[in-house]
Design goal:
It is a single chain. The chain is 6% helix and 47% strand. The strands form two sheets. Strands 2, 4, 5, 6, 9, 10 and 11 form a seven-stranded mixed beta sheet that branches. Strands 1-3-8-7 form a four-stranded antiparallel beta sheet, with no helix packed on it. It has 127 residues and is mainly beta.
């Protein structure tokens, strides 16, 4: 059974930074795609950033390009989302997911494919 646990969320002022972590247990090599998604109050879920464990290809939503960076530590089964220059519109619950189907990192994020999902960690950007 795969379990995903997110951490690192919190309250930050506009322009500030946060680093989210997603640690997986029970993960096998079959789940080669890992991604971050977010859902703001009253809005649909959005694929933020996804990465392939096979070729390290990445995808970023246009809304976060240049501000967010996804990285992974395969030895620790952990993926990180470094978020800089945060804006109030980044306020959301951020969740991670893994996917084992035939897909690219972009497809995982855009179509929002996931075999397992974490519970999420809230991020609030406010002064």
């Amino acid at each position: 059974q795969v379990q995903l646990v997110e951490s690192g969320g919190g309250l930050v002022q506009p322009g500030g930074s946060l680093r989210l972590s997603c640690t997986a247990s029970g993960l096998t090599a079959d789940y080669h795609l890992i991604g971050w998604f977010r859902q703001a109050p009253g809005k649909e879920r959005e694929g933020v950033s996804c990465v392939s464990r096979i070729d390290s290809s990445t995808y970023y939503a246009d809304s976060v390009k240049g501000r967010f960076t996804i990285s992974r530590d395969n030895a620790r089964n952990t993926v990180y989302l470094q978020m800089n220059s945060l804006k109030p519109e980044d306020t959301a619950v951020y969740s991670c997911a893994v996917y084992g189907g035939i897909a690219t990192a972009e497809a995982m994020c855009v179509v929002q494919w996931g075999n397992y999902w974490g519970q999420g960690t809230p991020v609030t950007v406010s002064s």
